[in-house]
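Budget justification aside, the reviewers requested a transparent look at the raw inputs and outputs of the sequence design task funded under Objective 1. We therefore reproduce one unedited record. The lines immediately below are the structure tokens for a 230-residue chain.
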């Protein structure tokens, strides 16, 4: 019997985009599961099913991989917001949505919370900051809604958009810090309501009496106490 030997062609290599996507997703899984320090390029390559050297063809270091993981994470977050925001009526509802959606981002993946926190610590302040740019992007979106509310009369005309953004940002950052440190479950709806009532009580044109403004700092303190991990 004569055996016919058929030469097998090498399987086609996946396109570059697919390879990069696989590497980044594998890095995200490894970093979230093991932490950035313990998550090695070797482990990432194993998860991706590729040789270690292949990763270095696209990323010069583990740090550059972390940056791409965080960048894509932010891109997905803001893409989702942009799709939803246009369908929400009134500046007040849109501002409240931005608070709630950010809280959901925090609570949906504690591993990514740790990575975001670590990335902020690793950033070189002399270079353009990805995390800072994303914070500014969210602040711009919130400020836009605050200014729209001032224009249509739903918010006080003497409201300071920058101060309101600082207040909201501070509450959200404290929430994220608490969650990263303790892992204690946080109710997104309840926390949104606490932050929103604190902010809205001070800027609403309907509720902005002298008494409500005088209690603003007290309510901010109460929110901070509830979120403090200590």
């Amino acid at each position: 019997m004569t055996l016919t030997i058929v030469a097998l062609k090498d399987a086609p290599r996946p396109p570059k985009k697919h390879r990069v996507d696989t590497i980044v997703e594998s890095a995200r899984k490894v970093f979230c599961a093991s932490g950035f320090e313990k998550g090695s390029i070797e482990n990432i390559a194993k998860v991706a099913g590729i040789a270690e050297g292949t990763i270095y063809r696209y990323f010069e270091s583990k740090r550059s991989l972390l940056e791409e993981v965080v960048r894509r994470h932010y891109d997905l977050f803001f893409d989702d917001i942009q799709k939803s925001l246009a369908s929400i009526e009134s500046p007040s509802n849109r501002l409240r949505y931005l608070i709630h959606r950010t809280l959901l981002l925090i609570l949906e993946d504690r591993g990514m919370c740790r990575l975001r926190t670590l990335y902020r610590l690793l950033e070189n302040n002399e270079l353009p900051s990805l995390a800072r740019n994303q914070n500014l992007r969210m602040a711009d979106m919130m400020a836009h809604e605050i200014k729209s509310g001032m224009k249509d009369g739903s918010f006080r005309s003497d409201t300071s958009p920058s101060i309101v953004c600082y207040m909201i940002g501070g509450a959200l950052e404290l929430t994220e810090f608490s969650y990263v440190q303790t892992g204690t479950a946080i109710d997104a709806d309840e926390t949104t309501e606490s932050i929103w009532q604190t902010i809205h009580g001070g800027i609403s044109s309907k509720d902005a009496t002298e008494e409500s403004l005088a209690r603003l700092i007290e309510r901010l303190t109460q929110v901070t106490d509830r979120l403090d991990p200590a």
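The chain has two domains: 15-60, 69-122+130-227. The domain at 69-122+130-227 is CATH 1.10.357.10 (Tetracycline Repressor; domain 2). Computational costs for records of this kind are itemized in the attached budget.
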